[in-house]
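Hi W., the NAP complex you wanted:
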Amino acid sequence: MSNVPVAVVTGSNKGIGFAIVRALCKQFPGDVYLTARDRSRGQEAEAKLQEEGLHALFHQLDIDDLQSIRALRDFLKEKYGGLNVLVNNAGIAFKVHDTTPFAIQAEVTLKTNFFGTRNVCTELLPLVKPYGKVVNVSSMVSSSALGGCSRELQQKFRSDTITEEELVELMTKFVEDTKKSVHEKEGWPNTAYGVSKIGVTVLSRIQARMLNEKRKGDHILLNACCPGWVRTDMAGPKATKSPDEGAETPVYLALLPSDADGPHGQFLSNKTVRTW
Ligand code: NAP
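Structure:
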């Protein structure tokens, strides 16, 4: 088993994830895994970094596929006895003008952004080593979507006692409510992406609390963040930040020094803790 520190970035064959891997290759003292759901896209991205003189390793990971997540888990366990840095970056968004029915958009978006990310956390968080870092890439849209929720939902999502099971129930209810076309009546905002990212931010707050309760002595720091508005296939060419600039806050959180006792359980943008 290797004692080399190891970092894993989900959805890193392009966009912000790719830029996070690029930065970690330069700054992280260990093995950096570029992961992608599609092997050939992943290996092409790995080769692109190689041309820049950077050495990332590739492993397949589709966060929608539990078998794929578990294969990565078993690989990390066997080869490294765990992992040191996990960046949950993979995500999807329908384009504004997409005509796919809203209920389908809700189901598909929540499946990857919330349930997929949660499944990765369920399988990989127990493997994170002492002084490890976990970064969940959410979005400022989670804050604006929270503002668009009913008072009752806002209270639940800001609660310091909400459980993961309660959050899963709420995310499931959103999808069900869209199918019945009652989501707005039930207090939800009209954005599937926004609700999925509320899920990611609240999940991060819950997971950080659980780490405090169950693994306090391990000094693991877990946060959610927004990369900013970044020129990628998701956000388009008019966005204000380059992918490398978008990677800055996630990379800052992934590389917090081992004597840092925070941030932990926070939502950050531009390396600054934001009020939730
Ligand atoms: P992007 O260019 O579309 O890249 C998304 C990445 O996620 C791709 O590598 C994609 O792989 C991967 N992915 C999607 N579904 C996956 C799955 N089931 N399993 C594994 N990988 C999967 O988007 P981006 O702008 O870099 O976004 C990265 C993260 O930042 C997302 O979580 C996004 O919500 C968040 N974010 C972006 C912005 C922005 O302005 N760009 C703003 C706020 C937050 P494929 O190539 O196979 O599709």
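DSSP finds ten helices and eight strands in the chain.

W.
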